[in-house]
Specification:
single chain, 424 residues, alpha/beta, Spore Coat Polysaccharide Biosynthesis Protein SpsA, Chain A, UDP N-Acetylglucosamine Acyltransferase, domain 1, 2 domains, 9-stranded parallel β-sheet, 19% helix, elongated
């Protein structure tokens, strides 16, 4: 079996990005640019990965696999001189070396694997990937022994002068060894990211692939060009993604859901048969058969159960909502545990912040919270209790009790006439 060793070159300064962020840390569909190079080499069949970093290397180390061999080429000119400087990386190595610059994020593992097979089957010592017109890329395969010998010879000849890929290929042929080109059918895979324009072009290509893959897995997209889906998102079959939907991070969507329009979910878990319309959720989860929106905001740390209604202009933060409960509209629930079969009326607010600390409120099963109720945390509302509309609750409400916390209505007859405010 032929061994494939991968060398990912991520040492370019990235001045074209005009950014304080390291070039290879820029995100494409939710993950760092360099992550695509790493994934494609693994898909191509390499379990031996070396990564050459430059002056901003520390900024991308968090994206690198633990088993990768890392080398620093700061101060070295060019990729081939870097390999020669770090020649210890190839010591005791045999087989084929894949050289992949990390700024080709649209290159797929499938194409690299096909090129590797071509390289082996044709008994090449060097194979360079080309576009359909025959233009050379910087992605290539080399017999490791052949490459080492050529680099040493060229270094003696050129000294500190940068060695070019064309110099290496000419030397391969001059020594009677075989070099070839592998033409790929999709030139878009060879888009190189040197600036924000290239970043956008690569992201559009990768986004189309992501959406197409979900479609092949049984997901319907309405106007897919209006949606933005991160690479790690998972979506169940027969789910429908409506226009303007953004799914980010490690979001998981169940089956038969309707997500959107104009909705955003970041690192969320969504069950089956969920409707999520014109709303936002971050770092939270939703159970089955729940309806959210329009215009709801579910903030981090929330756990929304099954068969629940979270209606318009409802905000939930760091709270649990039990199965079969309803929060239909215009309410804020923060740092609270709401039980099962609870009705939270319009305009109800959990007053969770005292100016210094957040406090938690508990509402039991089958409780009824009337309209415009304030629950001043920390407070407990027991099972099967009722709270009258307009009440501000500061003390525990016992089970089966009715709590009323408001002033009695006072009516002063003819007050408008006596004040001279009559408009008749």
């Amino acid at each position: 079996m032929h061994k494939l060793v991968a060398l990912i070159f991520a040492a370019g300064e990235g001045t074209g990005m005009n950014s304080s962020v390291a070039k290879y840390a820029h995100k494409i569909c939710g993950q760092a640019m360099i992550s695509y190079a790493i994934e494609s080499t693994v898909e191509a069949g390499s379990d031996n990965i070396m990564i050459i970093l430059g002056q901003n290397g520390d900024d991308i180390k968090e994206f690198l696999p633990e088993n990768a061999v890392i080398a620093d080429m700061t101060g070295t000119t060019g990729i081939w001189n870097a390999i020669l400087k770090q020649k210890h990386l190839l010591e005791d190595k045999n087989g084929t070396l894949l050289v992949l610059p990390a700024d080709y994020p649209a290159m797929t593992g499938e194409t690299l694997k096909a090129a590797f097979n071509y390289h082996i089957e044709n008994n090449n010592q060097a194979t360079v990937l080309t576009d359909p017109k025959g233009e050379l890329s910087e992605i290539c395969f080399f017999d490791i022994d052949t490459l080492n010998n050529i680099l040493i010879a060229l270094n003696k000849e050129n000294g500190e002068k940068a060695t070019a890929l064309s110099d290496i290929l000419r030397t391969v042929e001059a020594t009677g060894k075989k070099a070839g080109g592998f033409s790929i059918s999709m030139s878009e895979e060879l888009i190189k990211v040197d600036d924000r324009i290239g970043l956008d072009e690569a992201e559009q290509i990768i986004l189309k692939r992501i959406i197409r893959k979900h479609m092949e897995n049984g997901v319907t997209f309405r106007l897919p060009h209006t949606s933005f889906i991160h690479a790690k998102v998972r979506i169940g079959k027969d789910t429908e993604i409506l226009p303007g939907t953004i799914l980010e991070g490690n979001t998981v969507i169940g089956e038969r859901c309707v997500i959107g329009p104009n909705s955003r979910i970041e690192d969320g878990m969504v069950g089956n048969d969920v409707s999520f319309m014109n709303s936002v959720m971050t770092q939270s989860q939703i159970g089955d058969n729940t309806k959210v929106g329009p215009f709801a905001y579910i903030r981090p740390g929330s756990n929304i159960g099954s068969n629940i209604k979270i209606g318009d202009f409802v905000e939930i933060k760091n709270s649990t909502i039990g199965d079969n409960s309803k929060i239909p509209h215009l309410s804020y629930v923060g740092d609270a545990d709401i039980g099962r079969h609870v009705n939270v009326g319009c305009g109800a607010v959990v007053v969770n912040y005292d100016g210094k600390k957040k406090h938690r409120t508990v509402v039991g099963d089958y409780a009824f919270v009337g309209c415009n109720v304030n629950l001043v945390s920390p407070v407990t509302v027991k099972d099967n209790s009722y709270i009258a509309a307009g009440s501000t609750i500061t003390d525990e409400v016992p089970e089966y009790a009715l709590a009323i916390a408001r002033s009695r209505q006072t009516v002063i007859k003819d007050w408008v006439i006596r004040k001279g405010l009559d408009k008749k």
